Amino acid sequence: MTIAIFTTSCSVYRKFPQEKEVDKDLFGKEYVSTDTTTLASLSWRELFTDMHLQSLIDSALVRNTDLRSAYLRVTQAEATLQNTCLSYLPAVGLSADGTVSKLGSMPASKTYLLGASANWEVDIFGRVTNAKRGAREALESSKAYQQAVQTSVVASVATGYYTLLMLDEQLRINKATLTNWEKSVRVLESLKRGGGGITDAAVLQAKANYMALESAVLSIEKSISETENMICALLAMSPTTIERGQLANQHFPDSLSVGLPVQLLANRPDVRMAEHQLAQAFYATNAARAAFYPSINLGGSIGWTNDGGGVELNPAQWLLNAIGSLTQPLFNKGANIANLKIAKAEQEVATLSFQQSLLNAGTEVNDALNAWQTARKKLNIDNGQVVTLKEAVRKTELLMRHSSTNYLEVLTAQQTLLGAEQSVAQDRFDEIQSVITLYHALGGGAE
What we know:
10 helices; 4-stranded antiparallel beta sheet
């Protein structure tokens, strides 16, 4: 019987088997690589070299309320682990009792007891050990969560900052176009007065386009203010103007390396957190199994008293007591069986959550790489389109002054050029945003 109990109880001491392999096609078959270098190995300071952005991120890492809450969760988990580690030590208490009694004319009787007691659970079947291991995994999970929040804060501040730069560029383009369109309106009015075949309708149409662009400028300025407020909220500060550089001065790597899928296990904090939560559930299941085995407790007390069981002792003497107990659970209202079933189900849920976190990570990496490649291709095309359209606008304006070219051709060319220039700014932002997303997806964001 003893051998059987010892053999079956060995399972409660098993350590969590960590994941060592990941599907090599996790990022998609087109992105299978044997290169171990990865974008995530760069610190955020190396990737985001803009001094204004670095200052904003530094401030966010100190002030952001979500990140500060994550730090407190780590502190709580550390306290819990410390508490479980102390469970190996005996519980010690001190006591002091004293009584005074008097019967009739007899002298008063005074008795006292000064004592200390200790109780210790012998962890033969792993209840305390599994609780400690589970608490350690909870601590590691909290640390991974804190890192996940940090990478999210870094990515959010960077995204907001580059959104501002993109809006600044679009505002610059619109204002420059507004100046050109104002000149076009004056030219049309001059041609109409000189009998150049320009009608009132043409002038009015040009003025309407000019006013529509003025309205677009106001909308961009509103978006800039809202984006600045969003960044200030991330920094836990009141709304203010954000100092920043220019979109054209931003530099990023020309090639991006994603490394091996297995590196996500070490780099990506949400995957690590899911794995630690799975380990925590594993040890909770072991603890539920340990509840079926006997618990052994040792206790003892020592004291100094002058009361010898109704006979007053003088001088006082020591009292010593030692107790050992073994409790074997038989039927705890079905609670032990139910708790084990619950623990197994929670472990299965944690397993599925861990597997899904890996799949989500692979999908995000694939999407970010596709977005980066697409943005770079579109940027090349749209840059060429802008060059072509600028020449088209120049020639149509010349033809309008010196030939019978319809004013609608000029307006159409100007509007098409405006759209193409705004597309270039959007493409550049999309390229930068895909780098940020990929950096985040690979688990970057550390100092």
